[in-house]
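re: that chain from earlier
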Amino acid sequence: MNGTTLHKTAAACAEELPGSELEHPFGPDWEVFKVRGKVFMLMTEVPGRPVVILKADPGEARALQEQYSHITPGYHMNKKHWITLEGGDGIDKELVRELVTESYRLVVAHLPKAQQPVDPHTYAYGTRASR
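^ sequence. v structure.
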């Protein structure tokens, strides 16, 4: 998958998630997706290369980085809890959707129960919950 397709796929997935909002707090070059005011995905270009930055479980982040050369520690984020995804071989739409959804679930799980738009323990990509 190339970088343009990566951005389109990630944005489409994020927009479908309940309570997801797109903001540009760092200027027009950064697309920041939030749920209830908390960031779960950032998209930008790092010297001309489109990237998607996502929250990840630390153990899962390490495993993903070992498995995929196009997944690296989070750009300008906590390297333990965030990953950076670039387009390339082995990166497909299903993987992008899974990583975006997992990032969202991790953020939702830390919101107060009354603010959670979905139950993060049962929400999986493809389920349609009302926004």
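The longest helix spans residues 93-109.
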